[in-house]
Amino acid sequence: MFSNYTIQRFEGIETPFYYYNLDVLKQTLDACRDASAKYNFHVHYAMKANFNTKVVDMIQSYGFGADCVSGNEVLTAIKHGFGKDKVVFAGVGKSDKEINAALDADIFCFNVESVQELEIINELAAAKGKVAGVAIRINPNVDAHTHHYITTGLDENKFGINTWQLNDVADALRKCANLQFLGIHFHIGSQITDLEVYRTLCTRINEIQEWFEDHGFAVKILNAGGGLGVDYYNPDGNTVADFEAYFEVFHKFLTIKPGQEVHFELGRALVAQSASLISRVLYVKNGLKKNFLILDAGMTELMRPMLYQAYHEIENISRVAGDKENSLIKYDVVGPICESTDCFRKDVELPQSFRGDLIAVRTAGAYGEVMASNYNLRDQVQSVYSS
Length: 387
Ligand SMILES: *Cc1c(COP(=O)(O)O)cnc(C)c1O
Known about the structure:
Layout: H1 4-11, E1 17-20, H2 22-37, E2 42-46, H3 53-61, E3 65-68, H4 71-79, E4 87-89, H5 96-104, E5 109-112, H6 115-127, E6 132-139, E7 161-162, H7 166-175, E8 179-185, H8 196-214, E9 221-223, H9 243-253, E10 261-266, H10 268-271, E11 275-286, E12 291-295, H11 304-308, E13 314-316, E14 328-334, E15 343-351, E16 358-361, E17 382-385
Parallel strand pairs: 1-17, 2-3, 2-10, 3-4, 4-5, 5-6, 6-7, 6-8, 8-9, 9-10, 12-14
Antiparallel strand pairs: 1-11, 11-12, 11-16, 13-16, 14-15
Helix pairs in contact: 4-5, 5-6, 8-9
The chain binds pyridoxal-5'-phosphate.
Catalytic activity: meso-2,6-diaminopimelate + H(+) = L-lysine + CO2
InterPro entries: Ala_racemase/Decarboxylase_C, DAP_deCOOHase_LysA, De-COase2_CS, De-COase2_N, De-COase2_pyr-phos_BS, Orn/DAP/Arg_de-COase, PLP-binding_barrel
Organism: Mucilaginibacter pallidiroseus
């Protein structure tokens, strides 16, 4: 929802740009902080969802930790003031350079995704005379009931260590003197809206932590990852994800032992609803079977629809739907990039639209700006903030 004042303001700004509603961001962070504090759960922000400076600074100010998936994200988190005791580093392909950077930064924990990686971190830590904290990322073979492009916790996915390899993990941990085992880590996918999935995950975590305890490893950290979904279909009616219900599942179904910490790594649910991509209609093309709205934004600004068939609400904010002269028309809303897949959505019902109209692509705060590219030598997309 955009006020007339905001739309007036947009009129004076060159498009396309990301518009960040910082009130929505605050509302979301408040809700997440309050719901997690109830159970003393620790939340790490998955920085890959959005590393816009203002966004990251605001999240840091709430006292959340940072979940990083590259060496540069680790360095960026520390630069933004996240305490090194609250920075974790995940990822299936950490390079030696990245591991060394994280060792130098004395981060809290590496979430390790293979036996070979354990050995390499041990070797690099030994060379520096350090001990690296590690959690084992385990693939629990839980179906996240989400789009298959963003599911990560099944046997066929590249992420994590499969449970039949746990004996090898135990052997490696016993051998590696420069590793300190901290706990177990899971991340089964993204945009998960069925909370039953998390209940199943809890059952698997309980079994797997038993396995480690039985083999002589004290599990200090249970890290359940992230993945909580948002409502892409109703950004105004359902703006803040249901953090209460999400954390309650873990409170109810996870076996939490005395002294154990429970960690989460939320990305999308914290930032998705706080931004829209604002662009203008460049051209209206009426075909025989199709009408096209050609925008000045495309896959170079927001790639999600093209990358994994993601749905976004699309609004013409220059025209009021339902006016007599504004009967609804179906448009394929496309970008200017020289790729046939450069289409935000097909058959979008919008008021009759004209060159120069402002179009908002909603719920674009997660995996939006961060995935922008300069393919076709496009300008870097700008950011605008609510004041
Ligand atoms: C991407 C990622 C997350 C965050 O996922 P969301 O769906 O944005 O909550 C958490 N943990 C790891 C390891 C990730 O790769």
